[in-house]
Amino acid sequence: MYKYISAVDSFRFYMRVYRTDAMKIESKDWKIVCDSTNSTFHPLVFYSHAHSDHIPRKLPKTEIISSHITKSLIKNFVKNFSETSFYDSYSIGNTSFEQKSSGHIIGSTALFIDSDEGKVIYTGDVSIRNKGFLDPFKPEKCDILIVESTFGSPEYVFPSYEEEIKKTQEQILEYLDNNVPVVLMGYALGKAQMLYHAFSDLSSNVVLHGSNYNINSILQSENIDHSIQAASYTEAKEDNLFTKKGDWILFTPLKSGRDPFFSFLKNKYGAKLFAFSGWCLSSNYKYRMNVDHAITISDHADYSELLQICRECDPDQIYTVYGYSERFAGELRREGFTAFPLSKQTILDSYFNKSVNSN
Ligand SMILES: [Zn+2]
User: Fold this and answer.
1) Sorting pLDDT into bands at 50, 70 and 90, what band is 91?
2) What is the distance in A from the centroid of ligand 1 to the CA of 28?
3) 336 and 268 in one domain?
């Protein structure tokens, strides 16, 4: 009934890793669905973190594994929270399901499954960089690794985090010393907390816009670390902060500098725009986004770090998910790994039959 799919060691694993409407890991005795954005019932689900592309809008009424912080965030993002059961860890027979930091955003975890059939790690979105405020993911030897591949293409090797931060701090201070305000743009959950950690102390006039303010308020109300004390854009405007002072920092979600709001900030106050993203490595990103500075800081692992994770986990099988999944699986096969992409709607057995020998 359970097909084996390993080319290397066919009889060792009866587990299946596959993706249809959601990503699933299935054994003889259990099945777990990871980071599904739909509400279909499954007996056991895992949410690695609270980004909207990893959780549903309506929770399934089932057993859920997630971290305490992810649970607190989900509580604020869905309407039917009380109908669900959350667990830090879980066990079925001889199989244990445990979480450890994935280093991606606040509360993010990787899932470690230990069973008689082997050890499986699902990284979710992952980072192994030490950014000083999140525990990075620590690779462990395993049999099956399911690894994200957002930046799984060789051109995406990020510069040093510390150097990017230092360089940006100096640039921001130079602007503020000359009464030139700055706008720091990054996704409100995850990237924003990284930016607050690095830059919010550079001015006493810190303002949060829109969803940055809303997420920060949620962190405060849930007693989650990494919130800051800062005025909302509306409050700051009512206080005339923007006209009284020239040394303010406004944190906003990442959008094009052509957006009318950012054009207004540039024209009215002479504000300088900083975009923070791993995609800043793409050529022309700064011009496409129409910002003054494009800073390559990401909450994901870059290509070389993804390779490092795979080498240190040293699994028999690797499945790549999200982003450059096909490309990264190909690179891994060239390195000698048995690797498959878990693209949406791809069932691995058919992929394996078609393409395992193509590289
Ligand atoms: Zn994410």
Assistant:
1) very high
2) 30
3) no
